[in-house]
Amino acid sequence: LYPNPASNNLTVITEQEIKTIEIYNIQGQKVKTSNQKQINVSDLAKGIYLVKIQNNENSILTKKFIKV
Predict the structure, then answer these.
(1) How crowded is the C-beta side of 18, counted as CA atoms within 13 Å?
(2) pLDDT by 10s per residue, the chain, length 68
(3) pTM of the predicted model, to two decimals?
(4) How far apart are CA 20 and CA 52, in angstroms?
(5) Sign of the C-alpha dihedral, residues 4, 25, 31, 43?
(6) CA-based nearest residue to 46, from 66, 23, 16
(7) Is the dihedral of CA 36, 64, 22, 48 positive or negative?
């Protein structure tokens, strides 16, 4: 994930095809869903978020990012 911290756009770099990307706030609430490698996060409040990335093989990776 880059940039981290992010203010407008968050980009996921992977060679695999992405099935879904879900962003959760620190309380565990899903706040955004996408299937694109670039996500607009400008509408999210400042804070810490978890990004759950699922590929077409159903492997799941969770990363943390900071919204500034």
Answers:
(1) 19
(2) 999 999 999 999 988 899 999 999 999 999 999 999 999 999 999 999 999 999 999 999 999 999 99
(3) 0.93
(4) 8
(5) negative
(6) 66
(7) negative
Cα radius of gyration rounded to whole Å, the chain = 11
Gap between the Cα atoms of 16 and 27, Å rounded: 29
The one-letter code for the residue type at 4 is N
On whether the CB atoms of residues 53 and 44 are closer than 8 A, the answer is: no
Query: How far is residue 57's CA from residue 63's CA, in Å, rounded to a whole number?
Result: 18
Other beta carbons less than 10 A from residue 21's beta carbon: 21
